[in-house]
């Protein structure tokens, strides 16, 4: 069988677009006689899509950064509270997502196999789903720690945390298996979404699920802000002057931190979510990459927000890196801005 009859594998997240990188001579006229095109040697194809290099680089950074968080939590027995288990779940999900991006790039340009492409896309879908679900679980945990402050450290809280972890990873695994088990567009390109080989229906389910989760997180953070501000107001009244209370100042910083967390999450994921709902495989690839790349950056930012800002994890990192803990950090008290 000749090379022209073999099905080519597109090393990209996107459906093949023969006009994506080419221009057109429409509107130009030239009376000069040129030799036939067959007499020229064929131009070499574009070896690597630059956008795929960006995604692979992001995946490498994500994997390295979150591997450090997973290692610290795994090696430190003191980090076994429900909060740290959820942070570890988030770091593990982002670590797998980074590895998935790197493996997809490697298999797409080296192995060039549809089966490998399905496996890596399934891994990326499952990992990013687990990352978003872990963010929701952390939000729920923070709300419960404030609403049930007196009984938060009970055994029932630990059991609830384990239940959330089992559910979020089980659901994420199911979402990742969809393209692997046959729900993909490899057989029929017209059903492809903006991310090949996911179907339009598959991406629609993921996007709607994200919007629902974002709405739930927004509601929970509003309730968290109300609880924190109410507690701060009650404490400040005991000092007889609201604005002079140090606790009120740090509480305002805590509320600002919550706004930054939610705003960062929305800024990273919302463009791709909305675009994937309204677009399909016929849209220019540039738009897909321009919205997909910022979504991956959320996994770069997550360790900074949820792990490296935590005092206990900071101490564990210092122990791992230099075997000591700075005196200023050892005696620092936790404030509402650390929420």
UniProtKB/TrEMBL annotation:
Cellular location(s): Cell membrane
Superkingdom to which the source organism belongs: Eukaryota
UniProt keyword Lipoprotein, yes or no: yes
Gene Ontology MF annotations: G protein-coupled receptor activity
This protein's UniProt keywords: Cell membrane, G-protein coupled receptor, Glycoprotein, Lipoprotein, Membrane, Palmitate, Phosphoprotein, Receptor, Transducer, Transmembrane, Transmembrane helix
A Pfam cross-reference name: 7tm_1
Family of this protein: Belongs to the G-protein coupled receptor 1 family.
Protein's recorded name: G-protein coupled receptors family 1 profile domain-containing protein
């Amino acid at each position: 069988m000749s090379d022209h009859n073999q099905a080519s594998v597109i090393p990209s997240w996107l459906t093949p677009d023969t006009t994506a990188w080419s221009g057109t001579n429409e509107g130009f006229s030239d009376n000069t006689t040129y030799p036939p095109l067959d007499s020229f040697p064929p131009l070499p194809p574009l070896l690597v899509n630059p956008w795929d290099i960006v995604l692979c680089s992001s995946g490498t950074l994500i994997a390295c950064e979150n591997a450090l968080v997973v290692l610290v939590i795994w090696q430190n027995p003191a980090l076994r509270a429900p909060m740290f288990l959820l942070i570890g779940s988030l770091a593990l999900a982002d670590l797998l997502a980074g590895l998935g991006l790197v493996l997809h790039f490697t298999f797409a340009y080296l192995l060039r196999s549809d089966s490998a492409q399905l496996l890596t896309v399934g891994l990326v879908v499952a990992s990013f789903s687990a990352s978003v679900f872990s963010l929701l679980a952390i939000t729920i945990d923070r709300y419960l720690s404030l609403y049930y402050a007196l009984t938060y450290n009970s055994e029932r809280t630990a059991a609830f945390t384990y239940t959330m972890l089992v559910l979020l990873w089980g659901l994420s695994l199911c979402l990742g298996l969809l393209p692997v088990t046959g729900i993909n567009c490899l057989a029929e390109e017209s059903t492809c979404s903006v991310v090949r080989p996911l179907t339009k229906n598959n991406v629609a389910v993921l996007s709607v699920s994200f919007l629902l989760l974002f709405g739930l997180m927004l509601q929970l953070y509003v309730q968290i802000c109300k609880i924190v501000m109410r507690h701060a107001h009650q404490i400040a009244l005991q000092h007889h002057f609201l604005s002079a209370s140090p606790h009120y100042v740090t509480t305002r910083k805590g509320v600002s931190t919550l706004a930054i967390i939610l705003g960062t999450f929305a800024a990273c994921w919302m463009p791709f979510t909305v675009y994937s709902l309204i677009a399909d495989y016929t849209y220019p690839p540039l738009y897909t990459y321009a919205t997909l790349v910022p979504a991956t950056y959320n996994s770069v930012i997550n360790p900074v927000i949820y792990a490296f800002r935590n005092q206990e994890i900071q101490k564990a990192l210092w122990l791992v890196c230099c075997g000591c803990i700075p005196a200023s950090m050892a005696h620092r008290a936790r404030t509402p801005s650390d929420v």
